[in-house]
Specification:
The chain is 44% helix and 13% strand. 44% of the residues are buried. It folds into four domains: 223 residues, Rossmann fold (3-Layer(aba) Sandwich); 68 residues, no CATH class; 76 residues, no CATH class; 73 residues, no CATH class. The protein is built from 20 helices and twelve strands. By secondary structure, it is of the alpha/beta class. The structure holds S-adenosylmethionine (SAM). The site of S-adenosylmethionine has 21 residues, from helix 1 and strand 2.
Length: 481
């Protein structure tokens, strides 16, 4: 089962770690809800079971497991180093519902069972063909009958644009064997390339804009993504064919806006839609030069709907998206009744009944709540969940941050919120304050503890500082109700 490419991938992750982060679109309650909107049998209220393939250091899986103590969670990853740090965090959190397997997805234990949700993020494009094939086999074997699998991959044609940069970095560092020296040389070259391309007219300028963000990546990102031995983007139709060969069907993208034609010619899109499965997605990917897909897959026999059904919005829980709330604060978003209603309870969800009653109360403008909520979802205003998510809306008298957030505050850059969004804390004061919020301290006691920890500048108004941070933590869904 070993091969030079495969060994190189394993060695790479032992040499330079890959620091994970919560990836919101992999939230199982969101994925199952999208499945429901596409006609898959409702799973409302049932305990969650989730398998994460390439679970890395557990930054994505473990916060989800902590939020669903009654669920069942399994992570598998090739890297001993990353699995060890995942196990360390799982032990610190006292998780009893999670199994972390250090192993190759090509040899998954047969007895791990079936899962409502399977996630493989940041894997498919970076592994050789036999591993990609094994991933599809694992999904076919371990996905529950109406389950949803999430697979992200670099896609074409946008992938060609990034590939120019990736190839340039690999070419420039081809003779360097020491990983740290390779990363350092690549980092220097990114900046030089971006600067040079930016000064050119035409394609150079566009490439520079696209590639500029690579320079902000951490070492793990540069090494494992940009300099990776395998990095093969694929057309969405090719991915769909691969899934179909395993009797799986790609029924949606995790981003509901993926079918938004943008400025594209509506008649052209309509013509392509009529041509068959995947044609509309493919023409839109050409039109928008798409670079990344987050495909949602189920068993072909589950017969998912190609289009979400607005009627199925009923029975789900709904929340305002963080993006909508941010845009609303910044100003300039057109008033939206669904968004306004949900924003009032942000970051918590509202049940369908609560939302529908509230919308009907708004009068004739919302005669049909299901259609309005569906439009808000596709428009990036609202998002569904099969389960209620109820973080505190305001800091309580003795605020309590989730155990995950407290454990992660001083360890990682992005900590997981109760909405499974990666939150970057503002500064060292915030990083000191958050772990102190364990439900035992009043606001005044938090202020004193902060001073004792030396986390406040002399002369600062500590009480006001604490209030400001607590309000930010609450709106970032870091506090339990
Ligand atoms: C780019 S990282 C992504 C990790 C994580 N999903 C994330 O997004 O943060 C790719 C991961 O795939 C794992 N991996 C690569 N080949 C694998 C295989 N054959 N079986 C299991 N895991 C594998 C690596 O160890 C690494 O942790």
């Amino acid at each position: 089962m070993t091969s030079p490419v495969h060994d190189a991938i394993k060695d790479a992750y032992e040499t330079i770690a890959y620091v994970g982060r919560p990836h919101h679109p992999t939230s199982p309650t969101l994925l199952a809800a999208i499945g429901q909107l596409h006609g898959l049998a409702p799973r409302t209220g049932a305990p969650i079971s989730m398998l994460e393939i390439a679970s890395g250091d557990g930054s994505n899986l473990l916060p989800i497991a902590a939020a669903h103590p009654g669920g069942r969670f399994v992570g598998v990853d090739l890297s001993a180093r990353l699995t060890a740090s995942a196990r360390e965090l799982a032990a610190a959190l006292g998780l009893r519902n999670t199994t972390l397997i250090e192993g190759d997805l090509r040899a998954l234990p047969a007895d791990i069972g079936r899962f409502d949700v399977i996630v493989a993020h940041g894997l498919y494009s970076w592994v050789p063909a036999d591993v990609r094939d094994a991933l599809m086999r694992a999904i076919a074997r371990h996905l529950a009958p109406a389950g949803v699998a999430f697979v992200s991959y670099n896609t074409l044609p946008g992938g060609w644009i990034r590939k120019i940069g990736f190839d340039a970095l690999k070419f420039h560092t081809r003779a360097i064997t020491d990983p740290a020296a390779r990363v350092a040389a690549a980092r220097e070259f990114v900046d030089l390339l971006v600067e040079t391309w930016r000064a050119q007219p035409g394609p150079g300028k566009a490439l520079a804009e696209n590639f500029a963000r690579e320079s902000a990546r951490d070492d793990g990102g540069l090494f494992h993504d940009d300099l990776a031995a395998v990095n093969e983007p694929i057309y969405v139709t090719g991915f769909m064919r691969h899934a179909a060969a395993h009797r799986l069907a790609v029924f949606a993208d995790a981003d509901p806006a993926s079918l938004d034609p943008g400025g594209a010619d509506a008649a052209l899109i309509e013509r392509y839609r009529a041509r068959g499965v995947g044609m509309e997605e493919q023409i839109l990917d050409f039109v928008h030069l798409r670079q990344l897909r987050q495909s949602l897959i189920t068993h072909a026999g589950a017969r998912p709907l190609a289009r979400p059904d607005p009627r199925r919005a009923e029975g789900l829980h709904w929340a305002a998206t963080a993006g909508y709330v941010r845009r609303r604060i910044e100003g300039g978003v057109p008033a939206d009744p669904v968004g306004e209603t949900l924003a009032a309870r942000f970051p918590a969800t509202l049940s369908w009944e609560e939302l529908a009653v509230s919308l009907r109360g708004r009068g004739a403008a919302i005669a049909d709540p299901a259609t309005a909520v569906h439009a808000a979802w596709v428009g990036g205003i609202a998002e569904p969940s099969t389960h209620p998510i109820t973080p505190a809306i305001l800091p309580s008298a003795r605020p309590r941050a989730s155990a995950v957030a407290r454990a992660q505050a001083s360890r990682v850059e992005f900590i997981a919120s109760l909405r499974h969004i990666g939150v970057r804390l503002a500064d060292d004061t915030a990083r000191t304050l958050l772990p102190l919020c364990d439900g035992t301290r009043t606001h005044a006691e938090l202020a004193s503890a902060l001073v004792r920890a030396g986390a406040v500048a002399p002369g600062a108004d500590t009480a006001a500082l604490v209030e400001r941070h607590l309000a930010q933590f609450a709106s970032a869904a870091l506090f339990e109700a």
